[in-house]
Design goal:
Blueprint lengths: L11 H4 L15 E2 L5 E2 L66 H4 L24 H4 L15 E2 L5 E2 L42 H4 E2 L1 E2 L7 E2 L9 E5 L5 E6 L8 E3 L6 E4 L3 E10 L2 E11 L2
Parallel strand pairs: 6-13
Antiparallel strand pairs: 1-2, 3-4, 5-7, 8-9, 8-12, 10-11, 12-13
Length: about 300
């Protein structure tokens, strides 16, 4: 009896893939048969399931590929129209430097359509359609998972202020293609892009090399380059922080950063230290343990 079963503002008949020219929520046809079925219409075939997730579109909110709040089946906006406001931030796309608020400038995303879905990358929150949103694959912060970079507001040019966006997007495998423009990388082959695969089966017992010495001159964390938002802190046995690094890339070789007890750039004494590591990118866990400086 419900014309919009999922209450997403798009009538079931349209989301099912049938015709309703007058928008009354009822299948178009020429009449009714004795069983109450509409004759002369295009209904009564399997309803559409655009994303092939086993749930018909009329029974789930969306899909909404361009993130504009309108289910695709009922979205008549032209994504290339400069007068629309793709990200609903109050600034029309023609004057907005970041049409989808993903922390990547439109000039960086360009006018192409990586996944061929009819939505330009500059307006598409998942340009490569790999299920991992551009903001995350670019290495920026999106704690609520809405596909827009976290920040404190929008400036007059449509830029998200107070964010960590608008830096060079991540290219983990250094192949010249930003991760948000190619499927993956997926180092553990679990079908989820590394940037959206919290922990990726991360195991500190096997992925952290605790001894810094002649054979391992730097404190090494396996695949740390896959975690663009990681944060590392190292403490001595008295709890004094001697090293801190955002986006650590296996570069610590046992020198102090000048935290209270030790002078900056001074080699630390041999012995046991303790690390605190967060991987970021959806993995909120803090990994802690020991390391031994032996050089």
């Amino acid at each position: 009896m419900d014309l919009d079963s999922d209450n997403d503002g798009c009538n079931d008949v349209i989301e099912a893939g049938f015709t309703d020219v007058n928008g009354d929520g009822i299948l178009d046809g020429t009449g009714l048969d004795q069983d109450g079925c509409i004759i002369g219409g295009d209904g009564y075939t399997p309803p559409t399931d655009t994303n092939s997730n086993g749930i018909h579109d009329y029974k789930e909110v969306g899909p909404d590929a361009d993130g504009n709040g309108i289910a695709d089946a009922c979205d008549t906006q032209d994504p290339t129209d400069p007068d629309i406001d793709t990200d609903n931030d109050g600034i029309q796309d023609g004057a907005d430097l970041d049409d989808d608020n993903d922390g990547i400038l439109d000039t960086e995303e360009g006018t192409g359509d990586t996944d061929g879905d009819g939505i330009p990358d500059s307006k598409d929150i998942d340009s490569d359609n790999d299920g991992c949103k551009d903001v995350i694959e670019a290495g920026f912060t999106d704690n609520d998972g809405d596909g827009t970079v976290d920040g404190t507001g929008i400036n007059a040019e449509g830029i998200v202020i107070g964010s960590d966006g608008y830096n060079i997007p991540t290219d983990v495998n250094n192949n010249g293609v930003a991760d948000y423009k190619e499927v993956g990388p997926d180092s553990d082959n679990d079908g989820v892009a590394d940037a959206c695969s919290p922990g990726q089966g991360f195991n500190p017992d096997t992925d952290i090399f605790n001894v810094v010495g002649e054979n391992n001159p730097y404190f090494t964390i396996k695949n740390i380059e896959n975690y663009a938002n990681n944060s590392l802190k190292i403490f001595n046995r008295w709890g004094v922080m001697v090293y801190e690094k955002e986006r650590y890339l296996n570069t610590w070789d046992g020198y102090s950063e000048g935290r209270i007890t030790y002078e900056k750039n001074k080699k630390l004494p041999l012995g046991t230290y303790f690390y605190s590591l967060t991987l970021g990118n959806g993995d909120a866990k803090t990994y802690t343990g020991w390391l031994y400086l032996n050089k």
